[in-house]
Design a protein that fits this description.
Length: 374
């Protein structure tokens, strides 16, 4: 383009065009990375989960290491203890669920029977034949869709296979992250140009610090949510109080909406088992716990770990849920927190302090500096 032709274009248009093609390139890179991650989700998701679990367990491994316990033994003890607690909790919850389901089924049967009587004897005055025909329609629908149900069972079997494969990858990746994560990171940094290794190294440490703070804070918030709702359900004698509290604990790892969505299941159980008054009380309990989380726990605990606007949290969870389901919603916020801290560190003004660089361009500070929160 000649100089006169270029000058004929308004400067704002030229700037907009320059921004546009650069944004298109960035969008294309993000899209390609997303497609690759989607294709390799059996590997990417377990590695991401292992990174989050290492953020939770690594401070404990370092604590044992500083007190003279061999690092391999420290990793083994932390993993063994964690698996024992998880297996014991799941076993106890499953036993409680098995013991409580028959009573809940009986109560559901009574509710269905009373509903049928109300439909026949109440203001609707439906006939027994109409109600029976509805039941027959449901049965015929199940029979007609037997093939779909079978294919669904096959899909479930395939999903179980993927779960076991993912668990295997998570376990071994977690072992290597806990035992030699710093060496892995320093090796990764060597792929960057030598003049930026210091900054990339510091950005990675900052991102992992935010991940440690996020996991710790989320664990504490989820525990408080589960204990509060579990105690309330137990006081009201709602069936399956402990399994429901456990679901709330797991759901609370999805910020803002996880505990509410899993708590609605407790409202449904209370409605079926105890009536609408207990259901309203349970709903009020969930709202109260959610307000405690939003106005007390999140600012005091989570606010010190990560500083992300609530709108970014909601949009991140929604996008992660659309792209990768429950796992995407679970990993969305820690991913945003990690990227936010890394970008802040990379774009921070000022250069690192002058010091004698190591042979590979990475400072040889104390190893625990990479994992201790600020």
């Amino acid at each position: 383009m000649s100089a006169s032709a270029e000058e004929s274009v308004h400067p704002t248009v030229r700037k907009a065009a320059a921004w546009a093609w650069r944004l298109l390139v960035l969008f294309a890179v993000v899209a390609v990375v997303g497609l690759v991650a989607r294709r390799l989700e059996v590997i990417v998701v377990p590695v991401a989960l292992a990174l989050m679990m290492s953020a939770l367990l690594l401070p404990g491994v370092d604590w044992l290491d500083r007190r003279g316990v061999p690092r391999g033994l420290a990793v083994f003890l932390l993993l063994l203890g964690g698996l024992a607690v998880l297996a014991g909790l799941l076993s106890f919850v499953v036993d409680q669920f098995i013991d409580g389901v028959p009573g809940l089924v009986e109560q559901v049967t009574q509710v269905i029977s009373s509903t049928q009587r109300w439909l026949v004897e109440g203001p609707l005055h439906l006939s027994s034949d109409q109600i029976d025909s509805v039941g027959d329609t449901v049965v015929h629908g199940l029979r007609d869709n037997q093939a779909k149900l079978t294919s669904g069972a096959l899909s479930t079997a395939e999903a179980i296979t993927k779960i076991f494969t993912g668990a295997f990858v998570v376990l071994f990746t977690l072992i290597f992250f806990l035992y030699g994560g710093r060496d892995i990171w320093q090796f990764t940094v060597k792929f960057f140009p030598s003049q930026v290794r210091e900054r990339v190294h510091a950005a990675g440490i900052a991102g992992f610090e935010s991940l440690i703070g996020y996991v710790r804070a989320t664990f504490l918030v989820a525990l408080v949510d589960a204990v509060g709702i579990g105690i309330g359900l137990a006081v009201m004698a709602v069936p399956l109080a402990l399994p429901l509290a456990s679901l709330v604990f797991l759901g609370a790892f999805i910020p803002l909406i996880g505990a509410v969505l899993t708590g609605l299941l407790a409202v449904l159980v209370a409605l079926i088992a105890k009536g609408w008054i207990y259901a309203l009380v349970t709903l009020g309990l969930i709202i109260a716990v959610n307000q405690l989380e939003a106005h007390v726990l999140q600012p005091l605990v989570m606010g010190r770990a990560v500083s992300i606007h609530p709108l970014a949290v909601v949009l991140g969870i929604s996008t992660g849920g659309v792209l990768a389901g429950i796992v995407g919603a679970l990993l969305a916020v820690p991913t945003i927190a990690f990227i936010d801290r890394v970008v802040r560190a990379l774009t921070a003004s000022g250069e690192p302090a002058e010091s004698e660089p190591a042979s590979d361009g990475i400072s040889n500070g104390p190893p625990d500096a990479a994992v201790q929160p600020r």
